Amino acid sequence: MDPERFAQVLRDLPELHARPRGGIFIGLVDDQPAGCVMYNEQSAGVAEFNRMFVSEAGRGYGVGRRLLNRMFDQMIEDGYQKVIFSSAIFLTHARAMYEAAGFTDMAHPDGFPNEWKPYVYFMERPLLG
């Protein structure tokens, strides 16, 4: 992504993930920011989370799991029935956490560029039941 486009994405984050159809959560370790996750509405009844990050210093404290659980609770309160996300194949360290949280693989969405498919995976999880 070119620097100008990246700067625009950063400027748009608060609006893109704004309440009432989205949310931004910060995870703490010893009262210090150690991680974050954001979500927004992808389609009717479906939320998409992205920008999940836990710092190196924050790993091993359950920050990622707590962020996911808090986000799931808010998504349910918001009326979502399902959550989806995508991630880069090379980001292997979090996949076990996603699977333990109930996510399963899903197909790439229609229109997803074929040249990116070997590098990105998609997962989904029902929010109720």
Automatic annotation (TrEMBL):
Pfam families the record matches: Acetyltransf_1
InterPro entries documented for this protein: Acyl_CoA_acyltransferase (IPR016181), Bact_Acetyltransf (IPR050832), GNAT_dom (IPR000182)
Keyword Transferase: yes
Stretches assigned to the N-acetyltransferase domain: 1-128
Record keywords, A-Z: Acyltransferase, Transferase
Molecular-function GO terms, alphabetical: acyltransferase activity, transferring groups other than amino-acyl groups
Transferase recorded as keyword: yes
PANTHER family (UniProt xref): AMINOALKYLPHOSPHONATE N-ACETYLTRANSFERASE-RELATED (PTHR43877:SF2), AMINOALKYLPHOSPHONATE N-ACETYLTRANSFERASE-RELATED-RELATED (PTHR43877)
Protein's recorded name: N-acetyltransferase domain-containing protein
